[in-house]
Amino acid sequence: MTSIAVDTLRGWLEEQQPVTILDVRSTQDYAEWCIPGSIHVDAYDALKAHDPAALAGVELPADQPVVTVCGVGRTSQIAAEQLQARGLRALSLEGGMQAWSLAWNTAEVPLHENMARVIQVRRTGKGCLSYLIGAGEEALVIDACLNPQVYLDLAKSQGWQITSVFDTHIHADHLSRSRRLAEHSGSMLFLPEQQRVSFPFTAIRDGNTRASTSMMLTALHTPGHTAESTCYLLDNALLFSGDTLFPTSVGRPDLEANEEQARGRATALYHSLHKLLALPAETLVLPGHTGTPVPFDGVPIVSTLAEIDAQVGILHATRATFVQMTLARIPPTPPNYQRIIRLNEAGMLPDSDLTELEAGANRCAIS
Ligand SMILES: [Fe+2]
Predict the structure, then answer these.
(1) Contact call for residues 294 and 133 (beta carbons, < 8 A)
(2) Ligand 1 centroid to residue 309 C-alpha, Å
(3) Angle at 125 between CA 120 and CA 130, to 5 degrees
(4) Can you tell me the distance from the alpha carbon of 67 to that of 69, in angstroms, rounded to the nearest whole number?
(5) I want to staple 307 with a disulfide (CB 3.0 to 4.6 A). Which of 59, 72, 229, 303 is the partner?
(6) What is the pTM of this model?
(7) Smallest Cα–Cα separation from 105: which of 68, 75, 132?
């Protein structure tokens, strides 16, 4: 065996198996996104030139496998061969960081015993966060961003049946798997009310609730990041904030908007954020994305509204300053975002490899 599949490495990390991950990409690529816990040696050019001394000075433990990583799994193969020649058990990550985009892990949000259970399903290779919420025998999913089977298996392992699937908005940086998951699980598909998508769904409007015997989800329309953006409040205690509010930032209002439209959306975002800030300070906020690779640590990414209020200074600006500052801090647009939006509006999930289309980190927050 000279290579390792993403799923196998994902399993090793989840089981905390000893492994050294050696990333041989450029410093710039490594800084953009990496595998949590990996070590980095910028050996890309030397390896491509087949310099036999490319990894000569790199000290690695001999008592555990070394997984070499590059962009798409070719240069890492050269690295693995060089390390094997040194007697190490080296494996090249198949498909490299592009394939790693689909790697995921989970963390359960600690909640009172009598509440629904919330499992954060994190696409560590890209930063998308989705949620499996279960109570009794029933489960809901919010913002499915991974193969539907991942959610079906997780739900089954908890004795839950997925009955409803929700999206917080029409996503621009990953392909929504919600429609496909709803089909596979025989669930109802709920999307915020809008005229953008061209497939059947049940529209969710501000204040709509979806209740079962043991949980209640309430929709809060929070336009700004997109016009239809909606947050979901679970049992008046947890807020699934999509790309509207993050632990240290707020959503970007500019995608597919001209200057005037972006200004209008930033203004709407200001009002939406203040609507959220009116919720109890102890409300737990669970965002739709994170800007850094998610460790395999089982620790959920969650903040209280009070913590976010203290952390995100822009929330305290006047409306005019908020709009001005938001528009001044727009990050680069995500790669392929227009194609991704069109596919999400069409409800299409191409059967081919999606990772090339979805390449790059999430950039739905202002920086
Ligand atoms: Fe988004």
Answers:
(1) no
(2) 21
(3) 25
(4) 7
(5) 303
(6) 0.96
(7) 132
Distance 172 CA to ligand 1 centre (A): 5
Q: Who contacts 190 (Cβ-Cβ below 8 Å, separation ≥6)? A: 164, 165, 166, 167, 201, 202, 203, 204, 210
Nearest Cα to 303, choosing from 246, 242, 367, 365? Answer: 246
| Cβ 109 vs Cβ 304: under 8 Å | no
Structure tokens at 350: 């191409």
- How far, in Å, from the CA of 365 to the mean position of ligand 1? 8
- Written as six digits, the tokens of 358 are 């979805």
243 Cα to the center of ligand 1, angstroms: 5
Instruction: Say how many Å lie between the CA of residue 89 and the centre of ligand 1.
Output: 41
At 11, is the secondary structure helix, strand, or coil?
A: helix
Lowest-confidence pick of 94-103, 180-189, 358-367: 358-367
Report CA 2 to chain centroid distance, whole Å: 30
Q: How remote is the CA of residue 173 from the centroid of ligand 1, in Å?
A: 7
CB 121 within 8 A of CB 93: no
Tokens of 306: 């009070």
Residue 117 clears pLDDT 90, i.e. is over it: yes
Helix 319-328 vs helix 259-277: crossing angle, to nearest 10: 120
| 133 DSSP β-pair partners | 118, 140
Cα(64) to centroid of ligand 1, in Å?
39
- Which pLDDT tens digit goes with each residue over 237-264? 999 999 999 999 999 999 999 999 999 9
**Ligand 1 centroid – CA 51 distance (Å):** 43
Cα 334 to ligand 1 centroid, rounded to whole Å: 10
Q: How far is the CA of 79 from the centre of ligand 1 (A)?
A: 36
- CA of 187 from ligand 1 middle (Å) equals 23
Contact assessment for residue 349 and residue 177, using Cβ atoms and an 8 Å cutoff: yes
Distance 363 CA to ligand 1 centre (A): 8
Structure tokens, 80: 């693995």
Amino acid identity, position 321: T
> Looking at residue 250, what DSSP letter applies?
B
Side-chain-facing half-sphere of 338: CA atoms under 13 Å: 2
